[in-house]
Amino acid sequence: MAKFPIEPFRIKVVEPIKKTNRQEREQIIKEARYNIFNIDSEKVYVDLLTDSGTGAMSDNQWAGIMLGDEAYANCRNWKNFERVLKEITGLKHIIPTHQGRAAETLLFGTLVRPGMIVPNNNHFDTTFANIMEYGGDPQNFVDEPGKDTEIFHPFKGNINIPKLDTFLAANKERVPIIMLTVTNNSGGGQPVSMENIRQVRELADKYHKPFFFDACRFAENAYFIKTREKGYENKSVRDIVREMFSYVDGATMSAKKDGMANMGGFVAVNDDWLADKLREKLILKEGFLTYGGLSGRDLEALARGFEEVLQEDYLEYRIGQVRFLGELLEEAGIPFLKPTGGHAVYLDAKKIMDHIPQNHLPAQSLVVELYKQGGIRSVEIGSFMFAVPDRQTGEIKYPALELVRLALPRRVYTNSHLFYVAEVIREIYGYRHQCKGMKIVAKGESSLRHFVAELEYIE
């Protein structure tokens, strides 16, 4: 047996990538004002910024694109898209959107009003911002193991049930919806157990609240349930997925993740009234009911991608490749969030950059150094992304974790690329205490400042 994951596919088309030298990269990142989002893609050697829409589609998906029906209403690709999602999720109403944040805008724009609170295990950045956009307060209730990067727990994405119960008892009238992110992106791509999902369902029934998934990586979560949760080892991923969705009232999804395509999303619900309200907004914001901002060819690629993501040899490889990168870092003594999750390795910047205080953005300093040293683009998930002033006191609230996410695009990079990434990180770790903290010198008014802010080093 190989000691590394073997690709369950052959490579038929290649895209050249260009290597730059450190001197060139130092100038590039300086001109980008130390914001990794401002760097041209052709100046990135290994791009681990996100797994959202950056994967490689299959020959089957590309064949489907040639069958795109670009009729404005009720194209045949919409019928395939709707049928596949209903079969997989069991949810009654499928509403297409061009990506996940559009689905969030429809849902929260309908349900959230100023002063309302939306609980989740961990909200991701656009979810967080969309709730705040409508005057809501996004709050996180991830269980205690999910706040510790070192301890092993099979389901560190679980929500803390006793805390959520206490919170709902005290704030019932202010909660329009309960969310659960599977897998938990901001918390290290960690899975949520089926038992935890059932317990949230019980609380939703107890307090008469709708329960929704942020379902971006639902298939990866199901694979973790199969391999880690007792009683599911002999069940198919498809059956586990269907059980997961049986406990919710709806879901939002960026299909650029486990939809295996480059663009798309949806919001799905069982409630007829809510579906009508969402469709009204869809027509206003995204497009007609059967395309929602997507072309027919996009819908077809997604319909086929949702089937492919349930293939267990693919999921074994996908999660195995992430684990393999973690094993390389473990051998080098690099601190990262353990165990590895489904789509990314999360470096523990608090421990790597332990000489930089949290208000000097240690994770962003590491992001910049990864690019300067190896042309690797990653993303900060820490104080740069999530430190915000409390609405009552104005005091800055810092996140519990200070992470750098190395997100692996689906079916894109080989194990050789991962060896390279691990070697670059090992080199940085050797001189890490020479790295400086950073400060924001310009930012927009948006809560998504990390996309647009400009930074500089603290001298």
Protein structure class? alpha/beta
Low-confidence stretches: none
CATH H-level superfamily title of the largest domain = Type I PLP-dependent aspartate aminotransferase-like (Major domain)
Shape: globular
* Name of the top-level CATH class of the largest domain: Alpha Beta
Radius of gyration: 21 Å
CATH architecture classification of the largest domain? 3-Layer(aba) Sandwich
Topology:
Layout: H1 22-31, E1 46-47, H2 59-65, H3 76-89, E2 93-97, H4 100-111, E3 117-120, H5 125-133, E4 137-140, H6 161-171, E5 178-181, H7 194-207, E6 211-214, H8 218-228, H9 237-246, E7 250-254, E8 265-269, H10 272-285, H11 296-308, H12 312-331, E9 344-348, H13 349-352, H14 362-374, E10 376-377, E11 379-381, H15 383-386, E12 388-389, E13 396-397, E14 403-407, H16 415-431, E15 438-442, E16 454-457
Parallel strand pairs: 1-10, 3-4, 5-6, 6-7
Antiparallel strand pairs: 2-8, 7-8, 9-14, 11-14, 12-13, 15-16
Helix pairs in contact: 1-14, 2-11, 3-11, 4-5, 6-7, 8-9, 12-16, 14-16
Overview of this structure, please?
The protein has 459 residues and is α/β, with parallel strands linked by helices. The chain has two domains: 22-51 and 319-457, Aspartate Aminotransferase, domain 1 (Alpha-Beta Complex), CATH 3.90.1150; 59-308, Aspartate Aminotransferase, domain 2. It is built from 16 helices and 16 strands. The mean pLDDT is 95.
Question: Which short descriptors sum up this protein?
Answer:
alpha/beta, Aspartate Aminotransferase, domain 2, five-stranded mixed beta sheet, three-stranded antiparallel beta sheet, Aspartate Aminotransferase, domain 1
